[in-house]
Amino acid sequence: MDRSQKAESVASLNAVFNEVGVVVVTRNLGMTVGQSTALRTKMRDANATYKVAKNSLASIALNDTPYKGLEDLLEGPTGLAWSSDPVAAAKAVVDFAKTNDKLEIVGGSMGGQLLDEAGIKALAALPSLDELRAKLVGLVNAPATKVVQLVNAPASKLARVFGAYAAKDAA
Fold first, then answer.
1. Which of 27, 98, 124, 125 can bridge 90 by disulfide, Cβ–Cβ 3.0-4.6 Å?
2. pTM of the predicted protein model
3. How many C-beta atoms lie closer than 10 Å to residue 33's C-beta?
4. What is the CATH code of the structural domain delimited by 3-126?
5. What is the pLDDT of residues 101-118, one digit of tens each?
6. CB-neighbour burial class of residue 159 (10 A; exposed 0-12, middle 13-18, buried 19+)
7. Under-50 pLDDT residues of the chain
């Protein structure tokens, strides 16, 4: 990797760190190419990204970002996972780490708040942004359906009474 490629990589990572909601630092303990591909697919499905970066370049890219404190976690073969949704990357990494012992969660950060492994697992246990939106829509929609049911209830009762009188007259 020459100097211009390194500068481009640092600038790209710095832009990412200034935009995302969470960064998770992992340690790769000898994953195969197939396992790495599976992890990247899982991350992509969760609208998150996983990248293996040189520690020195990632450390430089962390400067002037809310994630500056992550420099201490960048030791050994590390990978970085990030997403705009504060829960998506953590959830995908924790789910993958449950089934693969070659991926170790080191820690991470949400905004300026540093998180250890337990913090990342707790973050992964929270509902995602999409799940929260669905619950909110359901809560907003529920009163509207109840109003419609209440408005229609007298009319349906009246229709049943008329139907009963019609059946009585027919008999």
1. 124
2. 0.72
3. 7
4. 3.30.70.1730
5. 888 999 998 877 888 888
6. exposed
7. none
